[in-house]
Specification:
- This protein is α/β, with parallel strands linked by helices.
- The chain has two domains: 74 residues, Ubiquitin-like (UB roll), CATH 3.10.20.310; 140 residues, Rossmann fold, CATH 3.40.50.11690.
- 36% of the residues lie in helices and 24% in strands.
- It has seven helices and twelve strands.
- It has a nine-stranded mixed beta sheet. It has a three-stranded mixed beta sheet with strand order 1-3-2.
- The longest helix is centred in the first third of the chain and has 27 residues.
- The protein is elongated.
- The termini are far apart.
Length: 250
């Protein structure tokens, strides 16, 4: 009885393998009917669109996908083609049972725009990548200026300790809805000292180095919540957060 049961299991397993192999062979011989592209715009960035992805996939029209057998289509190679675009964070390509090629593209998310007088501007993404600016779309993000910007873009921002600290400061501001709306520009001097420019109020914020970030923003919150309501939004022109346990206002 045990032998018969074992033989049945083997026969069933071989049958399933054969069916799967035949199904896969049949699917591979199918022709690509349509290419369906979705570009994820969850952060309302519009650097690329479906037409751009189509051009990347087809090598600017030199390699047509529609009408090809799936046996001749390398899905991983298509993903790699799409991901050569600096604005693309991730691409996924797969097929459905109807013969459609499904393409999902996720864009890189810029957090800040670096302004330079001697070279083109660039974006810093939430992954710390340096992205070129686009003729098609301008992201509404915090601006970064100052003498330090050249050094910031000559290397990957997270490769040095100072660059990592600046990236963490940018990230901190972007994660907080209030600070993201209030801080519109960051000016970084050659020695790494930072000035922050607010959206509301005329006071410059002397932040110092990108250190003790939470502590300094806690002090700035006290300034906004307790000092300005008594003195008025335009009473002070400078707020200094560099000193331990102090807020110095001029």
């Amino acid at each position: 009885m045990k032998l018969k049961k074992w033989v049945k299991i083997v026969i069933f397993s071989l049958s399933m393998v054969s069916i799967i192999a035949m199904t896969e062979k049949h699917r591979s011989e199918k022709v690509c009917q349509h290419v369906m592209i979705h570009v994820d715009n969850r952060y309302e960035n519009y650097f690329i669109d479906e037409q751009d992805v189509q051009m990347l996939m087809t090598d600017a029209g030199a390699d047509n996908i529609v009408g090809k057998k799936y046996l001749e289509i390398d899905l991983k190679a298509l993903e790699n083609r799409i991901e050569t675009n600096k604005y693309v964070h991730r691409a996924e390509v797969h097929r459905d049972v109807k013969g459609n090629l499904l393409v999902y593209t996720e864009q890189n998310r810029p957090m800040a725009r670096v302004m330079r007088s001697d070279a083109p501007d660039a974006y810093i993404s939430d992954e710390g990548e340096i992205l070129p600016v686009s003729d098609k779309y301008t992201a509404r993000v915090m601006l970064i200026s100052g003498e330090y910007t050249g050094k910031l873009l000559r290397q990957k921002i997270k490769e040095s300790e100072e660059g990592q600290q600046i990236f963490e400061l940018i990230n901190f501001i972007n994660r907080d809805e209030f600070w993201k709306a209030q801080i519109v520009q960051m000016e970084i001097a050659s020695n790494g000292n930072i000035l922050l420019y607010p959206q509301v109020g005329k006071q410059l914020i002397e932040f110092g180095k990108a250190e003790k970030i939470s502590e300094k923003f806690n002090k700035l919150a006290i300034f906004y919540e307790q000092v300005l309501p008594r003195k008025g939004w335009n009473y002070y022109t400078r707020v200094n957060l560099k000193y331990q346990d102090q807020i110095v206002c001029d």
